[in-house]
Amino acid sequence: MKLPLHLRHNANNRLFVLAQSGRGAPSIAAAMLWTAAASAFVGTNRARFSRILLLIALVLAVSELCSAQTAPSFEVASIRPTVAGVTGEGSCHGRDTRLDPRRSPPPLGQCVVTGGYLFYLVRVAYERELTIPLPPNQIVTGGPRWAYTDKFDVQAKAENSSTATERQLQQMLQSLLVERFKLKLHRATKEVQGYALVVAKGGPKLQPSKEDDYPRIIGGDATIALRSTVGRNASMGGLAGSLTNLGFGPVVDQTGLDGRYDFEFSFDRDLLGNPKGESAPTPAPQSGPSIFSALEESLGLRLVPQKVHAEYFVIDSAEKPTEN
Q1: Which of 21, 77, 101, 131 is the most buried (most CB within 10 A)?
Q2: Which of 183, 181, 118 has the alpha carbon at shortest distance from 323?
């Protein structure tokens, strides 16, 4: 085992300076052991001190192995092929989950997905690990063809259902996918054309939120060209994520605004711009403004084209699970 400390002897060969490196000692107790070892060296021959260091290294190694957490797992879990025609609905409900009033959540301490393709299950389990994700339909790539054609119903319950956090449930879902689908994946990054959300020259036109409810950004029907968007108790990071979900490129928040706001704006979905990051053409008189104009006129914000290092997941391999 490589020792986590380097020993440097001074010019008089009487004092050692312990310099921490790497991750350092794993606990205060470990630091105390190293301090005791350094004190014990004074007046002690090198051979004896080397044995002390070796003993401490072994103790720390065993301690680290014993304290390492095993991958979290559900108490009970069921995965079955989907029978109904529903596609990609579901989430995990932890004790700290802020519930969306528009949707019925799973029972507390459970992850429930109906009609989920494997790539959708990967999104539910892993998406929050991405700092700047690609648009939703690009977050997961690779893997077998059936990962995008075969749907599954997943229902899983944590043993500590009343205390499990949303993050813990997502980690349990990751373990379930690895166990049942033999899932292997890796995270990748690529530079793509995207946008920075910044404050416009005239300053923001945002109203601080008076709510302390579920942060939400609600869009209109995707089949309607003129889309109205309403934000309540929303952050600028949430707005950037909502804009990313429109699919025209990743959007990063560079407004510097840390508060939560209420806002509304409308734009023509047919005028979202193009993949090269160029602004949309001037709308026809009968249509609404482009997303670029709507943000600046209604919120005092701008979308500035820029290259973005966005993240996504690549499925290396997976197997169809057996039904249970």
Answers
A1: 77
A2: 181
